[in-house]
Design a protein that fits this description.
This protein is mostly helical and 646 residues long. The chain folds into 2 domains: 513 residues, no CATH class; 117 residues. The protein is built from 27 helices and 5 strands. The protein has a 5-stranded mixed sheet, covered by helices on one side. Helix 9 packs antiparallel against helix 12. It is globular and about 85 Å long. The C terminus is likely disordered.
Length: 646
C-alpha cells in the first residue's frame, strides 16, 4: 500500500485536469449555437460532453489516416482548438473558472478509479481493457487504415487486426491514442484511467441540462454534489469505467449527452417562435453528440435513433410543430451522416455482425437484481455486492440490497407526482422513452430469446447489457425526484444531501478497494502494479539478449498476465501456446498458434505452481525469467517442459 500515492495516480490527476479543461473550453465554443434561452445551461452542463465528443471526432479522423504519435498533428490540432475556443469566448475568466470546477467535479466522480491508483498503482486491465490498450500503443506508429495482412498477424497486433477485419468501433481507442500522443506517454496503461474518468464527469454533469428547472434554486456547490451521486453507485457507467469497457463508458457518456440535450431542445423548437436559421444552428451541437456516440459505441446508436424519432413524433403531435421538428431532425441527421462519412458503413457492418453473435456469459440474477443494477444498488458481473445471486439469497447482503432497492424506488415514486404537474416532464421525455425501449428489449431477451448458456433465463448477458446502458438515464429520474422532494423542505434536504454525498463517496472508495484486491492478490508482493509492468519489461531488455525468442509459459490462471506481457513486450519475438486465448489466437497464422519451446529461449513463468521450466533465473514479482540452456537437464524438468509446451 502507498500512503503518498503512486506515480500513475499523480499523472492521472494531471491528465484528468488537462482533458476536462480542454473539453470544457472546446465545448463552450459550441454553446453559442444553442437558442438564447438554453445557452447558459448548455455552457455549464454540456460543455464537457460537447468537448469530449468533438475530440473523439477529431481523434477518429486523424487516427484513421495518420500515425497519431509520429507527427506534430496532435499538438497542432489541440492548439488550434484552444485558439478557436478562446477567440470565441467572451468571458475568458469565467471559462477558466468553469474548467477548474469541472476538473474538481471529475476528480470526485473518478473516486472509484482513483483510489486503487493511489493505493496500488493499478486499475483492472485483466479484461477487455487489454484490447484498447493494445490499440492505443499500436496507433502511435500506425494509421488504422494500414491493413494488417493475415500472414502479418502476430500476438502484439492481433487486437488491431480483429477490429480491422470485423469493422468494430474505434472511437474510444482513437481518443485514448490521441491523448497518449498529446502527453507523449509510451504506454496507454498510464492514460486509460483519465479517459474513463473524463467520460464519467462529462456524463454526470450533462444530467443537469434536462434538470435545470428544478436545480435552478440550488447553490452551485449543492448542484454539483447532487450530480456527482451517480458516480458513487454500482451501475453501468461506473462498472464500465472499472472493468475495461472503454467504448461503452465513452459511448454512453456521449449518447447520454445527446438524449439529455434532445428534451429541452425539442421543447424549444416546438413551443417558441424561431427561424429556420436558429433551428439549423441548434442542430449542429446535437449532431456532434450523435456522431461522437456512434464512433465510440455503435451498438448504442439504434436506441439513440429510435429515441430521436419517437420523441420527435410525440412532440410534433402534442405541440403541432411538424415542420419545425422535421427540419431540425433532418439537419441533425444530415450533419451526422456527413461527419461519419465512411465510418457509417463500418458502424452498420459492426452492428450487423454483432447482432447475430453470442457474447458474454450467463448472469444468474433475479429480475430485482437487474432492476437494482439499473438503479445503481447492485454490482455488475464480476463486481462486488451482487446480492441477487442464488448463493446470496437469505444472506445479510440480500436483505441489505433489497432495502436499498426499496429506498431508491421510494425516492423515484416520491417525485412522480411532481413530475406529472411540471413542464420539466417534457424535458425528460426522451429519457423516459429510452428507458421504456430498454425495458421492452429486456423483456424480449428474457422471455422470448432462448438461453444460449447452460444457466440463466433467456439471453441473460443481453439483459445485463441493457441494464448497464439504462443506468445513466435511470439516474436522471432519481436525481429529478431528489431535487423535487427538496423543494418543500430545503434545509432538511440539504443536510440529507450532504449525508448522502459523504456516505456514498466513502462506500464507493471502499468498493473500489474491494474490487481491486483480487487483482493485487494475484500479483503477490507487488505494491505498485504500473511500476511492476515497467520493471518487468526493463528487466528482460537489460538482462537478456535482444535476439532471444521469449516463451511465455503462462497458461491457465496466468492467461491475463500473458496478455499484459504481450502488451509490454511489443517489440520482441514472443511464442506460447495461444490456443486458450480467445483474444489473441483467433487470427494468428497456424504456425504461430502453438510454437514449441527451443533451447536458448527466454522463458517467463510463475514462481509457484506445477510444470515449472526453470530451476533458477531472475525473479520479478511472482514470476521468474531465465534462459533454457538444456532441454533435458533431468527427468523432472524434462517432464515439466513437456507439459508446459504441450
Amino acid at each position: 500500500m502507498n500512503f503518498i500515492g503512486t506515480e500513475i495516480f499523480w499523472s492521472t490527476m494531471l491528465y484528468v485536469t488537462v482533458i476536462l479543461s480542454l473539453a470544457t473550453l472546446t465545448g463552450r465554443m459550441w454553446s453559442f449555437l444553442f437558442p438564447p434561452p438554453l445557452q447558459a445551461m448548455a455552457r455549464f452542463y454540456l460543455a464537457p460532453v460537447l468537448g469530449l465528443s468533438t475530440l473523439t471526432i477529431v481523434a477518429s479522423l486523424i487516427g484513421r489516416f495518420l500515425p497519431i504519435g509520429k507527427s506534430a498533428i496532435v499538438p497542432l490540432v489541440t492548439i488550434a482548438l484552444l485558439l478557436m475556443a478562446l477567440m470565441r469566448e467572451q468571458n475568458k475568466g469565467s471559462a477558466f473558472r468553469q474548467a477548474l470546477s469541472t476538473t474538481l467535479f471529475g476528480i470526485v466522480c473518478g473516486v472509484s478509479v482513483l483510489v486503487p491508483l493511489f493505493m496500488f498503482g493499478a486499475f483492472i486491465a485483466h479484461n477487455d481493457a487489454f484490447t484498447y490498450l493494445a490499440h492505443g500503443n499500436w496507433l502511435q506508429a500506425h494509421a488504422f487504415s494500414e491493413i494488417i495482412s493475415p500472414k502479418a498477424v502476430i500476438p502484439q497486433n492481433s487486437q488491431i487486426a480483429i477490429y480491422q477485419v470485423a469493422n468494430l468501433r474505434m472511437g474510444g481507442s482513437f481518443l485514448l491514442a490521441f491523448f497518449q500522443a498529446l502527453f507523449h506517454v509510451t504506454w496507454s496503461y498510464e492514460v486509460y484511467p483519465s479517459i474513463v474518468i473524463a467520460s464519467l464527469a462529462a456524463c454526470f454533469l450533462a444530467m443537469g441540462f434536462p434538470l435545470a428547472q428544478v436545480l435552478v434554486s440550488m447553490h452551485r456547490g449543492k448542484r454539483l454534489m447532487l450530480l456527482a451521486l451517480p458516480a458513487f453507485t454500482l451501475g453501468g457507467m461506473v462498472f464500465g469505467a472499472n472493468f475495461g469497457f472503454l467504448p461503452q463508458t465513452l459511448g454512453l457518456a456521449l449518447g447520454a449527452g445527446f438524449v439529455f440535450t434532445a428534451g429541452p431542445m425539442f421543447l424549444w423548437v416546438s413551443t417558441t417562435r424561431n427561424t429556420n436559421i436558429t433551428i439549423g444552428k441548434a442542430a449542429l451541437p446535437m449532431a456532434l453528440l450523435l456522431t461522437g456516440a456512434t464512433l465510440a459505441y455503435s451498438e448504442f446508436a439504434p436506441f439513440l435513433l429510435a429515441t430521436l424519432v419517437i420523441s420527435g413524433v410525440v412532440s410534433a403531435l402534442l405541440f403541432h410543430a411538424w415542420s419545425k421538428l422535421l427540419l431540425h431532425c433532418s439537419l441533425l441527421l444530415g450533419i451526422s451522416v456527413l461527419l461519419l462519412n465512411t465510418e457509417l458503413l463500418r458502424a452498420y457492418s459492426a452492428l450487423k455482425e454483432q447482432s447475430g453473435a453470442v457474447v458474454g456469459s450467463f448472469i444468474e440474477w433475479s429480475p430485482s437484481g437487474f432492476l437494482a443494477h439499473t438503479l445503481g444498488v447492485h454490482g455488475g458481473a464480476w463486481d462486488v455486492f451482487q446480492w441477487s445471486m442464488p448463493d446470496n439469497i437469505m444472506k445479510s447482503s440480500f436483505f441489505t440490497g433489497l432495502l436499498l432497492l426499496i429506498f431508491v424506488a421510494g425516492i423515484v415514486l416520491g417525485g412522480v407526482g411532481f413530475l406529472r404537474n411540471k413542464q420539466s416532464y417534457w424535458a425528460l421525455l426522451p429519457t423516459v422513452l429510452l428507458l421504456l425501449f430498454f425495458f421492452s428489449a429486456f423483456l424480449y431477451f428474457r422471455y422470448v430469446v432462448p438461453s444460449p448458456f447452460p444457466k440463466g433465463i433467456g439471453q441473460s448477458w443481453s439483459q445485463f447489457k441493457l441494464t448497464e446502458w439504462a443506468h445513466p438515464f435511470a439516474m436522471v429520474v432519481i436525481l429529478f425526484s431528489l431535487a423535487s422532494l427538496r423543494a418543500n423542505q430545503k434545509k432538511v434536504w440539504d443536510v440529507v444531501l450532504f449525508i448522502l454525498f459523504t456516505t456514498t463517496l466513502l462506500c464507493s472508495a471502499k468498493n473500489s478497494i474491494s474490487r481491486t484486491l483480487p487483482l493485487m492478490g494475484y500479483y503477490k508482493g507487488v505494491n505498485d502494479l504500473n511500476r511492476f509492468y515497467l520493471e518487468f519489461r526493463n528487466t528482460i531488455l537489460k538482462s537478456f539478449p535482444h535476439n532471444k525468442q521469449i516463451y511465455l509459459a503462462l497458461g491457465g490462471e496466468h492467461l491475463k498476465f500473458r496478455q499484459m506481457a504481450t502488451l509490454y513486450l511489443f517489440d520482441r519475438e514472443l511464442s506460447a501456446d495461444w490456443k486458450d486465448d480467445g483474444y489473441i489466437y483467433q487470427l494468428l497464422p497456424p504456425e504461430l498458434g502453438t510454437k514449441k519451446l527451443k533451447m536458448g529461449d527466454l522463458v517467463v513463468e510463475p514462481i509457484l505452481g506445477a510444470n515449472r521450466c526453470l530451476s533458477h533465473g531472475k525473479e520479478i514479482g511472482p514470476f521468474r525469467v531465465g534462459i533454457i540452456d538444456n532441454l533435458s537437464d533431468d527427468k523432472g524438468r524434462k517432464g515439466g517442459l513437456r507439459k508446459a509446451v504441450n
